[in-house]
């Protein structure tokens, strides 16, 4: 769902950048002022790295199309909504700057769609459903499903405001992302059920164990991720709308590859390890800094 360079045009880019900046700033302010709980720095780092790692693992939906876990509601359930918005924004920022995953001028729209709507509104919906006495797995699944649909509808609106697309494009985008939303719902509910099944003896250790397993597993599976375009890119290509512009020319590890390494597997694993480490380090620094400022 990462929007590539030059996909959106006109005033939509500064508008989405402004909304995204305001949303992330508001989330950081809530954490700084103690209006929301600040997660432990280690947990914040591990959840952020796990989301980064799981997003790398594109899986084939059907021949020619792939999709990946987004993780907004997953992060919101483990970190709280404001922290999840910041966590997702860190992931998206590093994906763009280090790996050219999404256009640099599209970063605002990507953060709006996947962090503000995905983790933010998705996390709020999860909280609302839990308050209405929904079973936790059902609340997790429903919120994750809606989060992906919200992002998909926002994507269609952004394209329309850019003067691109028609009813055929939008119906294809919504249709294919509905399948991805179902996958997101099941994966989110399953992952949170696994992490949440804590005994009294290992209540603190179990989340870290499973998050660590997810990070290591993502690193090991990175070379085997599907090479097919994701649902958004596939749709844009189907309607001859995919721009040819390079996402971010200065990204040092574009396409998750390291120049000079002859082995494709080694290149993918090394770049994935750098991404995981960078995400964890930046997330840890943020959470640690907020905690210190609050005294």
Key features of this structure:
10 helices; single chain; mainly alpha; 295 residues; two-stranded antiparallel sheet
Characterization of this structure:
The chain has 295 residues and is an all-alpha fold. Helix content is 68%, strand content 2%. The chain has ten helices and two strands. It has a two-stranded antiparallel ribbon with strand order 1-2. Helix 1 crosses helix 5 and helix 7 packs antiparallel against helix 9. The chain is globular, with a radius of gyration of 18 Å. About 2% of the residues have low confidence.
Concise account of the structure shown:
By secondary structure, the protein is mainly α. It has ten helices and two strands. Strand 1 and strand 2 form a beta hairpin.
Give the topology.
Layout: H1 12-32, H2 41-56, E1 59-62, E2 65-67, H3 72-79, H4 81-99, H5 107-131, H6 136-161, H7 167-196, H8 205-221, H9 231-238, H10 264-293
Antiparallel strand pairs: 1-2
Helix pairs in contact: 1-4, 1-5, 2-3, 2-4, 2-8, 2-10, 3-4, 3-5, 3-6, 3-7, 4-5, 4-10, 5-6, 6-7, 7-9
């Amino acid at each position: 769902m990462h929007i590539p360079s030059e996909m959106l045009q006109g005033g939509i880019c500064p508008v989405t950048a402004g909304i995204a900046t305001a949303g992330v700033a508001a989330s950081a302010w809530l954490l700084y002022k103690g209006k929301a709980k600040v997660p432990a720095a280690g947990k914040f780092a591990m959840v952020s790295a796990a989301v980064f790692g799981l997003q790398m693992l594109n899986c084939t939906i059907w021949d020619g199309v792939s999709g990946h876990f987004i993780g907004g509601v997953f992060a919101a359930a483990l970190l709280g909504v404001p922290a999840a918005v910041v966590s997702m924004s860190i992931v998206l920022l590093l994906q763009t700057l280090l790996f050219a995953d999404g256009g640099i001028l599209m970063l605002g729209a990507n953060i709006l769609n996947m962090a503000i709507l995905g983790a933010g509104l998705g996390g709020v919906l999860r909280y609302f459903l839990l308050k209405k006495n929904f079973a936790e797995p059902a609340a997790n699944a429903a919120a994750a499903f809606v989060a992906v649909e919200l992002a998909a509808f926002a994507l269609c609106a952004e394209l329309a405001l850019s003067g691109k697309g028609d009813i055929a494009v939008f119906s294809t985008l919504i249709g294919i992302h509905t399948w991805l939303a179902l996958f997101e719902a099941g994966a989110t509910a399953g992952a949170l059920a696994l992490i949440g099944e804590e005994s009294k003896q290992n209540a603190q250790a179990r989340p870290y164990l499973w998050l660590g397993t997810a990070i290591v597993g993502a690193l090991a599976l990175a070379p085997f991720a599907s090479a097919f375009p994701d649902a958004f890119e596939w749709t844009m290509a189907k309607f001859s709308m995919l721009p040819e512009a390079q996402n971010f020319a200065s990204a040092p590890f574009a396409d998750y590859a390291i120049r000079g390494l002859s082995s494709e597997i080694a290149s993918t694993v090394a770049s994935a390890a750098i991404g995981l480490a960078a995400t964890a380090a930046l997330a840890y620094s943020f959470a640690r800094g907020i905690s210190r400022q609050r005294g």
